[in-house]
Design goal:
By secondary structure, this protein is mostly helical. It has twelve helices and no strands. Helix 9 runs antiparallel to helix 10 and helix 10 packs antiparallel against helix 11.
Length: 405
């Protein structure tokens, strides 16, 4: 028995405001999601074995993935162009990498170790020069009114730095077991990553197809497009950042060597490593170079700044445009906010992984948002409804006159 139309239209306020209200349903879903998160947070001990397993597996997998994105184009190109079997190409690449590592250990590592030790040995002299320069600056008559305040702040800063160092040293000794655990994890990562990388390069082309077998047929096309977009974004970022960082290290090392800057190789390697931090890396790398140059000779500061200007020009005009993966299509403000937030929450690891993780989350969000726009119908443009009272458009009758030949 159907309900009369009058009863259908006359609904209670509870039905209109709660049962048949999209905002209320959305809030209820959010509340349920928060309840699920709260429940999982209170039984987190159940997932501790899984967390420990992931923390052990995560470092070698990430290192292998970075090397995979860097080496996979070389392996694929050799396989297609020279018709070399993939397994032989991978073997040759591994032999070349081992040779480069041996060369670096024999030729570069001793130089970097010597220069680093010299920096540590000379740091007390640099610190004393900083103090003498500060005292000379404070002796100026123009600072008579604020000299005491500056001295107080400087002394407090020095005490805080010393106390922080002492506390960290105490923590290091107290957490000796943790330090041993960290060293063990590093060794396990370095020993495991080559094997993971080998099978990634060997079975990489089939990985996507094997994953799609577990996806329902209805969603395979969209899932394939999603995985392709994520893979392309990660490959562009990793290849771009590593390529640019390598050439930045080379340019700084060569530039510092030409101008006679002390510890040129170490400062260049440091610049290349810090350049993995977008927008901030190069400026962070120039600080120790300027400090060392300032206590070498006043003219050396100018030379270091000239090297920095030349390097930035070459990087921005030639290196970065040639590297396709260096463009993430992200606003600089967004990048800086991500670096600050990720660094605050996850430390150094967050600084390096914040941008690629954001890129993946952005792709997932945009795909979900596109699906939501289609399903919800909230973003459809309203269609024009014909008004029956509107005057009909005038019709123009065009007559043609035939001219008989």
């Amino acid at each position: 028995m159907s309900m009369p139309d009058s009863k259908i239209t006359k609904r209670s306020w509870f039905y209109r405001w709660f049962l048949n209200n999209k905002a209320t349903v959305a809030l209820i879903n959010i509340l349920l999601a928060l309840g699920v998160i709260w429940a999982f947070a209170n039984i987190s001990w159940v997932f501790k074995p899984v967390t420990d397993f992931l923390m052990m597996v995560f470092p070698p997998v990430v290192l292998s993935a970075v090397l995979y994105y860097l080496l996979e184009p070389l392996v694929r190109g050799a396989e297609k162009r020279f018709k070399i079997p993939r397994i032989w190409t991978i073997t040759i690449v591994f032999i070349v990498i081992i040779g480069l590592i041996v060369w670096g250990v024999v030729a570069l590592i001793p130089i970097i170790q010597t220069q680093t030790q010299q920096i540590i040995d000379n740091w007390p002299k640099y610190w004393k020069n900083i103090q003498d320069t500060t005292n000379t600056f404070l002796a100026s008559s123009q600072l008579d009114g604020v000299r005491d305040q500056i001295n107080t702040q400087f002394n407090n800063l020095s005490k805080n730095v010393v106390n922080q160092i002492n506390n960290n040293i105490a923590d290091w000794f107290n957490n000796f077991t943790s330090a041993v655990g960290v060293i063990t994890n590093v060794l396990v990562t370095l020993a495991t990553a080559p094997f993971v990388l080998f099978f990634m390069l060997k079975d990489g082309p089939r990985f996507k197809g094997e994953m799609l077998k577990f996806v329902p047929v209805k969603f395979r096309r969209s899932t394939s497009e999603l995985l392709g977009a994520i893979n392309q974004s990660l490959s562009n970022y990793i290849r771009g950042q590593l390529t640019v960082a390598f050439w930045v290290g080379v340019m700084f090392s060569v530039g510092y060597s030409i101008v006679g800057q002390k510890y040129a190789l170490t400062l260049g390697v440091l610049a290349g490593f810090l350049n993995l931090i977008p927008y901030l890396g190069s400026f962070l790398a120039i600080i120790p170079a300027i400090v060392i140059a300032a206590f070498t000779a006043p003219l050396m500061v100018v030379k270091v700044l000239v090297v920095f200007a030349i390097e930035q020009t070459i990087e921005s005009r030639f290196v970065s445009p040639l590297v396709v993966g260096s463009k993430m299509e992200m606003h600089p403000v967004t990048t800086l906010l991500i670096l600050l937030a990720a660094g605050k929450m996850f430390g150094l690891l967050g600084v390096f992984l914040g941008i690629p993780v954001y890129a993946i989350l952005k792709i997932l969000f945009m795909r979900f948002f596109d699906w939501f726009k289609v399903v919800s119908g909230l973003y459809e443009e309203p269609k024009q409804i014909d008004d029956p009272q509107a005057p009909a458009p005038s019709k123009t009758i065009v007559t043609t006159k035939r001219i008989d030949q």
